[in-house]
Amino acid sequence: MLRVLGRTTSINVRKVLWAADEMGVVYEREDWGNPIRDPNVPEFLALNPNALVPVIVDDGFVLWESHAILRYMAGRAGSDLLPAEARERGLVDQWMSWQASDLNPAWSYVVGARLRNNPPNPDEARIEASITAWTRKMHILERHLEKTGDFVANGRFSLADIVLGLSTHRWLSVAFDKPELPAVETHYKAMTSRPAAAAYLSERTP
Ligand SMILES: N[C@@H](CCC(=O)N[C@@H](CS)C(=O)NCC(=O)O)C(=O)O
Q: What are the boundaries of the signal sequence (predicted)?
């Protein structure tokens, strides 16, 4: 059976678990990741030298990086959550890449400071800069969702909705003055109405 290594409080682990549930992929999960179980041990580092979760082990095949795992699982399951048609797939990939390379780095400092007490004495100017950058990215998402409605791409649910739905969950989890983003809210509501999402979007924790 597919093994998923990672704590359920991790956004990147949640991507994998939510996608697996949507695709009906059966897995067993093992708790790894701080503060629950430190991955900086030889047993884990042999699987992922980055000491980060999630990692999957599929019949001896090891994979890390959440989006690589999502694409692998969709391929294995023959799931349309990553469409086969080139343009449809391109759009899903585009928003997944944007989440990882643009949106995630924007929130990194403020999420560390406000949700994880890391660093313990944060630099207020860096917090403000992170909030500004994150908000700017969320406006980009808002303008896109104003056109596409309940789904990020192709008028139907895909891996892009999972990674961006969880990103909105993170946005809502950190307290600061936020602008109204009605299209983001509409998309998030559509995500929370999915039975498979309930476990991953309910608690407002990191
Ligand atoms: N780019 C990686 C990032 C993975 C990552 O940053 N994981 C965090 C949790 S969200 C982690 O493992 N932190 C260390 C820990 O939990 O011990 C991915 O998408 O999988």
A: none
- For residue 39 and ligand 1, the question of a CB distance below 6 A is answered with yes
Question: What is the reported pTM?
Answer: 0.97
Structure tokens at 27: 């897995």
Atom of ligand 1 nearest to the CA of 64: 20
CA torsion sign, 23 to 28 to 32 to 36?
positive
CATH value of 2-77 in 3.30.70.100, 3.40.30.10, 3.30.70.1290, 1.10.3720.10: 3.40.30.10
5-41 pLDDT per residue, tens: 999 999 999 999 999 999 999 999 999 999 999 999 9
Instruction: Phi first, then psi: give them for residue 156, nearest 5 degrees.
Output: -150, 165
Q: Would you place residue 202 in the very low, low, confident or very high pLDDT band (cuts 50, 70, 90)? A: confident
Nearest CA residue ID for atom 12, ligand 1: 52
- CATH number listed for the domain at residues 86-201: 1.20.1050.10
**Rg for the chain, CA atoms, rounded:** 17
Distance 51 CA to ligand 1 centre (A): 8
